[in-house]
Design goal:
heterodimer; A: Fumarate Reductase Iron-sulfur Protein, Chain B, domain 2; B: about 600 residues; alpha+beta; Flavocytochrome C3, Chain A, domain 1; Methane Monooxygenase Hydroxylase, Chain G, domain 1; 7-stranded mixed beta sheet; 4-stranded antiparallel beta sheet
Chain lengths: ~250, ~600
Amino acid sequence: MSETAKMRVFRGDAESGDWQDYEVETEEGQVVLDVIHTIQATEAPDLAVRWNCKAGKCGSCSAEINGEPRLMCMTRMNLYEPGEQITVAPMKTWPLIRDLVTDVSFNYEVAKTIPTFKPRAPEADGTYRMMQEDIERGQEFRKCIECFLCQNVCHVIRDHPENKPDFAGPRFFVRLAELEMHPLDTEDRLELARQDAGVGYCNITKCCTEVCPEEIHITDNAIIPLKERVADRYFDPIRWLGSKLFGRG
Amino acid sequence: MVEYERHDYDVIVIGAGGAGLRAAIEASAQGARTALICKSLLGKAHTVMAEGGIAAALGNVWPQDNWEVHFRDTMRGGKMLNNWRMAQLHAEEAPARVNELEEWGALFDRTDDGRILQRDFGGHRYARLAHVGDRTGLELIRTLQQHAVHNGIDVFMECTVSRLLKDGDRVTGAVAYWRESGNLLVFNAKATVLATGGVGKAFAVTSNSWEYTGDGHSLAYWAGAELIDMECVQFHPTGMVWPPSVRGILVTEGVRGDGGTLRNSDGERFMFDYIPAFFAAETADSIEEADAWYEDKVNNRRTPDLLPRDEVARAINSEVKAGRGSPHGGVFLDIATRRSTEYIRRRLPSMYHQFKQLADVDITAQPMEVGPTMHYIMGGIRVDADTAATTVAGLYAAGECAGGMHGANRLGGNSLSDLVVFGRRAGLSAAEAAAGAAAPEPDEAQIDEIVAGMRAPFERDGAEGPYDIQRDLQETMHTLVGIIRTESELIEARERIDGFKERAAGVGVYGHQQYNPGWHLAMDLESLLTVSEAIARAANVRQESRGGHTRDDHPGPNDAEWGTKNVVIRQGADGEMEVDTSPLPEMPAELQRLFEE
């Protein structure tokens, strides 16, 4: 069942760029990434796109499709009406390299600033014991495929790039929460979460949770508990709750 | 003289999947100044796709398990073609490597008493695979990545190595380019580790990503190293078959490990018709026994659904050919009958997600349609078992690009353990070698020649582009060098590959050097063609069927003639590919006794 898709793809580099229209024959069951590959193999062999696994497991092919942050490999073409124009743009928050490829190095720099896992001593036999129920929260966070869509959509840096030096972003709040809740970890990262990672900037609009392809409850399970732990240590909890409820601060 | 960035290191590691990361961590821990070079962003390598688990005889679920049983399973699964010493080191060291991952922050699923849980997989006598649902590879790569960034390793992301540099007989570094800018880099290294993974993109239907173009195999071959067992290619029995755009995407063996069974269009559990004599003594021959085995492994034999992958892939292939396939040319894989929705969603969340989103199939209620997909190459760069040294000085190899460990067929779960066991060993040896070596100086003439080759496609704007050549090659490898092979087709494949080589020599690209996928593919074509030729040639030489190499014209194994030797590929003095054989290393008597029971 072949249909013609009307694609509008951003082409350009850091200097300049524009939308380019393509009409592409599609097959049943295809995803947006397939259509981008068809364009590459026919009309535009130099169309730049990042991808790896094509199965939603590596988090490489993030883009904004009809304005919505998504993985191209998990976005079926039949999500859109036949004949509907589909726009594919690079993630907005990162500097553009070329076409659909952006410079996501910010995330790798932030990753380096988070002190690594530091386990307590093992049991006498040299291994560890952990109960399944004690690691389930951490396992949810470790589903993260680092597609950086949560980072891309977070308005703290999307609309205010000047915040980037002071704000680690949702992906790294997930990482910090994971380490905080790891049953074996002994390192203290709350000062980092408060000061350098800037968890206080987040005002819980849940944009990150909405776009997470792994359906991690970023805001409810990671960010809010992290904020609570920071508040318990550094602030009067009642005052903090008031500011959260009434939007001050 | 061309312009390039110069980087001097003790050790460079090419490839940043499980093996490359583990090698870099070890080299760095030994005090070597280490660079890690990868084609993609860090953490995106193919390891991330591994689903079912990492095999290690921890004995947490079945205390009867130990390294000797794991060793025996691995050798028998590999149809005894394995390098016995690699299989021994692997079985002995895998438990320590898994525990180490936990020390570095990995969160494996737990037993009721809080130990690492282990799951059943094909060819393993006991439940042996440590796992995290069905996303074990992601856990492994993220754990190593998070450990590595604090180890002082310099990471060069989206950077592709084009050729290795040599000084006489010794490898002294590599020429690479930034994918982002097209700019050149020269690495001068006292020791080089290859950890580039496999060759899947030479085939039309594969579970592998674009990166799997046989780079490490080819870099080693061009530098004079030997490859072994290149004919041994694993077709995973269960890839998705529909819709067409997802054809080949992996469906974890964990589905069968956790209770899924294979059926044909008549609803028959056909695997009972395909139990080979080699595994008959340990395989259930009735549905009753197979079903009882899930709960009681002591008094029942394992279900034939969990025979090694080569056996299951051939069986599916035969069923489809006999007209008993599913509507889209596969067979049915059903877990919904045996397991509850809650169980399936907890144990196999990404399979649930994958089928729901990509194929509109709810695996908690409906069977999946599955069929063989090119998944793994057992063959690879010939290495010394203990040191991971290749046959060329200064060059080491680990993981999928190294040969020998898995013989003619790899057991599921043995790949992730292979990565960390031999990644560590390669990093250790490379660091030791670097400690005693002088810093190499770049040879400008050699660099100029390599760079001229890399840039040549831009001079041929208007010539045929790389995409059609790759597609034709994939189709040829799939149809003529696929799951079932025969001499006339292998000869035809070689002739066609010669034609593709000619087309590739004249390939043209246009546009900018900056992030230009057409140009990148034009360069990758060279390695794709090299490994394809190696596979086709080796497959024609081994005149028997063994593991991941099935010859229609030579059915069955020929132990006396072929069970005792490796097929070896090297570059001859005239630059042509040369095929040879060499005797398998002989297993010592104290290990041989494990096969006499």
